[in-house]
Amino acid sequence: MANPSSQTWTLRLKSRKTTVLLHVDPLHTFATIKSYLYDALQETGLKNPQTGDSIPLPASPSDIQLGKPVNMHDPRQGFTLGEWEYPSVVPDEAEDGGGAGKGKAKAGRKSNSGATASAANVKDCPKGAGLKDGVVLAFRWVGDGLWEGMRRRIWMLMGMGMVREEEGERGDMWGVKLASYEDAYGVDVEADVGGGGRELED
After folding, report:
1. Could you give the CA distance from residue 122 to residue 154 in angstroms, rounded to a whole number?
2. In this structure, is residue 164 part of a structural domain?
3. Containing domain of residue 136, as a range?
4. Where is this region: Disordered (predicted)?
5. Sequential DSSP letters for 35-99
6. Taking Cα atoms as reference points, which of 34, 35, 25, 8 lies closest to residue 117?
7. Which of 17, 77, 137, 138 has its CA 20 to 30 A from that of 131?
8. Is residue 196 situated within a structural domain?
9. What pLDDT sits at residue 49?
10. Which CA distances in Å does 144 have to 16, 55, 59, 87, 150?
11. In what helix (H) or strand (E) does residue 32 lie, and over which residues does it extend?
12. pLDDT tens sequence across 108-117
């Protein structure tokens, strides 16, 4: 994780009632951010708030998916899978003399605290994806008790196979519970999810 400074961003990563605060370089790749999240969860664990049971972590940080708010100004409207989670196809530039084959791109630079996005994959970082400092992101993985993966549908279009992945059949597959003062004090105050106020967590 990056050392907090005037240049770092704070990300609020949420699942159920758990919030993990990470200080990151806004150009850190999402793979780097997931590795920081994974390390934090290994230290603190993740529990089901209904049963108190520990939720097993995935085998690798790459198994974690991140979701962004449907409405950046109101996370209560829910979350959607971030576009950085979908595999990107880089056009084959070998024939154009670009030297990069299909699916290949220049790697980002390696900073002291993690890999950062390069010009070729600029959207693979919070700043490039249009996120802001203090943003709330949801996280999940297959087998976390809320989400069981994607189902695939295949269409044939002009003789070429086209694969589309869709959400499974479960209900709220992000499971984020936004805290409110009512939870603790019985006072009806709307949830604070960042941007200058307090947030109560278990």
Report:
1. 29
2. no
3. 9-142+177-185
4. 90-124
5. HHHHHHHHHH--B-TTT-PBPPPPSSGGG-EEEEESSTT-GGG-EEE-GGGSPP-----GGGT--
6. 25
7. 17
8. no
9. 85
10. 11, 6, 12, 22, 14
11. helix 30-44
12. 555 556 787 7
